[in-house]
Amino acid sequence: MNPNNTIPNEEIVKLAEKEEARFLSILLKDKDCISDAISYGINPTEKNKPGHFLDEKNSYLYFLIKKNYISYGSLLTRSAIDSIMDMQDKGTDEQRSAMKTHWDKTYNRSHDVDKEDYAMLRDHINDRFLLWQFFSIVQNAPEIIKSTSNHSELIKGFLTDINGLKNMNPDSYSLTMTMEEGVKIAMEHITDRRENPVDPDRIKTGIKALDDIYNGLEKGSYTVVSGMINGGKTTLLMNIGFNMAKAGYNVAYVSLEKKAELFYRRLLSLHASTDYNRIKRGGKEEWGITEHWYGKLKEAARDILEVIKPRYDCLQFVQQTKLTKILSEVDKIRTRKSLDVLIVDYLGVIGFESHTIGRPDLDLANIHQRLMAYGRTHNLVTFTALQLKSSSSKGIREKARKVGTDADVSSVEVNTEDYSGSQMIIADADNAIGCVLNADHPPTKMYISISKARDDESRRTITLDFDGKIGRIADPEYTPQQIKTTHDLLYDSNINDAQLEKDLASDNDLFTAVSNSVGAIVKDETKLPILTAPSSDITDDLDDAEPSPDIINDLDEAEPELVGEDKENIVDASMDLGDIEGHDDDGDISDIFGE
Amino acid sequence: MNEEKKSIDADPEIQEVADIRKSKQKALAFLRRGKEAHIPTEHLRINKDQFAKLLDPIYIKENQKEYKELFGDEYKARNTKEFASYIYDNADKILDLNYVVIDGGNGESRRRAGYALLFRLILCDKWGMYKECSELSHIFQTINILENEPHRNVLASSLKKFGVLFISEFYPKLMSSHWEIGSFFDDVLVARRYSHKVTIISFSEPMTNEQRLTDKDYGVTFADLSWQLKPGKKVLRIKVGVDESK
Known about the structure:
In chain A, a hairpin with a 4-residue loop joins strand 10 (about 460-465) and strand 11 (about 470-475). The two termini of chain A are about 45 Å apart. Chain A is an alpha/beta fold. In chain A, helix 1 (about 10-25) crosses helix 6. Helices cover about 50% and strands about 10% of the residues of chain A. By secondary structure, chain B is α/β, with parallel strands linked by helices. Helix content of chain B is about 45%, strand content about 10%. Chain B has a 5-stranded parallel beta sheet, sandwiched between helices. In chain B, helix 2 (about 50-55) packs across helix 5 (about 80-90) and helix 9 (about 150-160) packs parallel to helix 10 (about 180-195). Chains A and B meet through helix 14, helix 19, helix 20 and helix 21 of A and helix 1 of B.
């Protein structure tokens, strides 16, 4: 609200003065209420954007409370005022002193402050904000009456302004539907579906095997993807997100482990079918970014930017960032353009905003519920990832090792009890998918176990092709020509075994092979780069990196203190995650994408 | 939303590169599976010509009718080269069988034939394992856990799961009913048969009617397999000679 343009209603102004102070008094003492107020859309006045508060000091105090909470997850103390105002480079000493006095007055208000009144106060403040916006618009109405022409445009503009009232429906999801309304809407939907088989409310993953099961994911749905450490979760999410973005949907990928820059490098690598190791090694030599591969990468970049133009934004945060901050950044994207898909990678490293003693699983469940509510409210297809329990991982990995025939694939099952964290997460989720890489070195397949779907009959395990070097997960395909090529490569008696293994692991000859139809294996050993064996610097990184401790995978068993200590370790390890190859428990290199 | 846009994904060169990349990825995986199956490196990639040289040409000629019964009318091989070609080009048919039984020649040629088939079946996207019969007998006869070896129950359980299993050099003197060796082999082989997983077995002594095993010391399965000289239902019998490639 703008104090220079207040509503000409003394009663409202007096009520505002009292209620804003009570409201802020609660926010100075309760983090849950701060979090709620932010999610609800309560805003201070900033630059030219009007906010919810009539009183300037109240508005600025709320600004400080919100800023402090988003930055540090804590309540605004009196002493913090100096630091925050320093950060903003605002305020003379007098102004700071005045703000501290205002803090004192607000904080010490106790006679009419009760947390039970929070929701009522919030709603009243929001209502007055709406009223003020309405008043500002209606003030221009006499001009429309006085005008002599262009009435329809002026009235349209007036109606657009009315329809654009901010925070009109802060809780647009909640409603009560009568039987009559519900059945009518259901029949309309059924009739529409009958006429239009393509359901606009469902978004396909681009992986046929998954789409055959889910028939696309419904807007507002929440899907949990689980897997072992370095089990391909991130690769799967990245592929699904890219497929959806290529299909024209707006996708936001929240990465709490990898930098945005790294994300896009890998995306280019995927789109150009280029071994990511080439980018890591660099240079123009045969094992680096050769002319051919450089050309392919440039072509892929041009293709993405000029032809396909997928809307695939990446938001980068450090581990332990609070969900409130993450969602406020996602909100910024939503204000610029509509958002269809939100991918959060991954749930287990988001900072807790509640602290239930001895029950970090409940704190994680709280984050999950808020994320799910956000996705439902804004009609997004939401994905997140969780690790599997360490106690389950070994058994599942063993099953994946023992897949001898197609019939054995069904034995690779990830059940809802295998997911880490609270069972509430899986109970609430619409869909749960477990992903497990097969035992090849490097893995060639990913088994997807449908742990939860709306339809129980959908529960099964499917097999997808996995290529860790380029980060691709796709429907399984092994054509007769590919089979022939594979056999010809293996049975070529002109090459000794050691040489063959090196040649097969290299993609040096791929373009030559295209012109020769069967791989023209480079026979000169001195020229052949070794691309499979990791370079010693990468191995050293692995030796030094702190693997995610098992305790994080078993949040329902974790001690809060231990979780805290280990979380610090994870933050340290994350600094090198961009350069580190994935590795399994045996220390072998699996794939570069890891999770 | 948008229809599929034409992009580099549709570029034929990228498609072909992707195909070859996949072929190489598979080839590397199969090569490593072969090593994990304990196929010795020098016997890892026996091609059809090399396999043909291992075979006994007389046996193939004399059992044309029986092979045709086993494989159907499209089987037309008349010599070792054609037989080897047929096996290599129709390896998926071997996967439908219960057993492949090898005898004749010497230990080395029998093993080589087994390695060749094992690897060829691994190329049908299976996981395989090679074990010496004597090694298995030693573990199966031991109630306690041996150092660096799994317990016999654990071993038996794991052997049931491989897509393809090659047990080489079965000979009767390995077996003893007192130590339940035959029972363990039966447990593994019968379970594999019921779950449609093929097992390759080489016999160190020639299979003849006179030498058929009747004593149940050897387990029912070995006994049954040992005496049917002709290729039978769901059993492919191969006789090898001495390895001519050496």
